[in-house]
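Dear H.,

Thanks for agreeing to be a second pair of eyes. The structure we're designing against is below in token form, covering all 327 positions.
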């Protein structure tokens, strides 16, 4: 089958429709699915063809609104909701236990949820919150769901893990491996929220690289930059001044269309996630970083392209969660 060329302007529906035979019957979990976000859009587009779509969020009422909205648009959709608070490792374990009780295997795990408030805080597990939500908890969730992922393998399919990162992974010096759990008091990472966000979005890229290497022949892993998209994230109180300072937003808080950042719609932003989850042209590109629906490893920070860094981060994260993650 000849597939169309995807690019900057491609939408999630265009990708899902083109890859409908790949999506058909697959069971997919997408984290962070509040309406007006790319996780919701990803789940909605996939739900047209998937066997099961599991959506997660920390707020049960908002989560149900998302499920209702998907089912209203796609009446035949099979959607389940799981409350998942990524700021708590205990909550991650509880959610994983619920998912593992399902009879179905899991074909795709999409880590879309992110901590984006740019407010510095420490979680109940003594982990800086941006790193906890963007990296440590997804790492633990992947480990706990690994048997269910591997159970979906067949001669025609290897399970996929997709990590939604950000352009910010390339906008800094790379992750400080001595401060993954939390920055030192008074350090730049503690006072510069954008620097810590850069680190928290670099860590998942390295994890995808490490997972691809460790899981070769068993699963595939990808990370990606979805694009610059105006969602509910850009309206948060602490985020607005930070984005105004670098020219992303105008003084009135609206997108600066004259900046160097090229804006996408939410459907355009979710398209790369759907590509990463299902495009067979990526079968021999596990570990890759994607942008605009295609492989873009040249856009990945050099530090985040180094397998040695991926290995070091893997070991550090195992220490934080208190257990080994063997693929």
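And this is the sequence the design step returned. I haven't edited it by hand at all.
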């Amino acid at each position: 089958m000849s597939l169309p060329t995807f690019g900057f302007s491609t939408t999630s529906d265009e990708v899902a429709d083109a890859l409908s035979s790949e999506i058909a019957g697959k069971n997919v979990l997408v984290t962070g699915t509040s309406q007006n976000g790319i996780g919701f859009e990803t789940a909605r587009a996939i739900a047209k063809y998937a066997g099961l779509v599991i959506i997660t969020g920390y707020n049960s009422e908002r989560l149900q609104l998302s499920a209702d909205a998907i089912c209203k648009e796609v009446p035949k959709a099979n959607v389940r909701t799981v409350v998942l608070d990524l700021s708590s490792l205990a909550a991650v374990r509880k959610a994983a236990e619920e998912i593992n009780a399902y009879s179905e295997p899991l074909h795709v795990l999409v880590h879309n949820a992110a901590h984006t408030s740019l407010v510095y805080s420490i979680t109940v597990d003594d982990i800086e919150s941006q790193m906890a939500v963007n990296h440590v908890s997804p790492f633990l969730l992947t480990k706990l769901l690994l048997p269910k992922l591997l159970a979906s393998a067949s001669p025609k399919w290897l399970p996929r893990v997709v990590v939604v990162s950000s352009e910010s992974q390339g906008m800094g010096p790379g992750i400080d491996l001595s401060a993954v759990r939390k920055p030192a008091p008074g350090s730049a990472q503690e006072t510069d929220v954008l620097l810590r966000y850069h680190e928290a979005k670099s860590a998942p890229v390295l994890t995808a690289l490490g997972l691809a290497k460790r899981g070769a022949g068993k699963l595939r892993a990808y990370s990606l930059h979805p694009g610059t998209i105006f969602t509910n994230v850009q309206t948060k109180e602490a985020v607005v001044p930070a984005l105004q300072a670098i020219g992303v937003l105008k003084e009135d808080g609206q997108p600066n269309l004259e900046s160097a950042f090229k804006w996408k719609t939410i459907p355009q932003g979710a398209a790369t996630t759907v590509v990463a989850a299902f495009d067979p042209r990526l079968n021999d590109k596990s570990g890759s970083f994607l942008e605009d629906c295609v492989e873009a490893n040249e856009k990945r920070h050099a530090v985040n392209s180094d397998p040695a860094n991926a290995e070091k981060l893997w070991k550090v994260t195992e220490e934080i969660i208190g257990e080994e993650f063997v693929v």
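Two observations from my side: The longest helix spans residues 129-150. Strands lie at 27-30, 52-57, 79-83, 108-111, 160-164, 220-225, 228-229, 263-264, 289-291, 294-295.

Warmly,
E.
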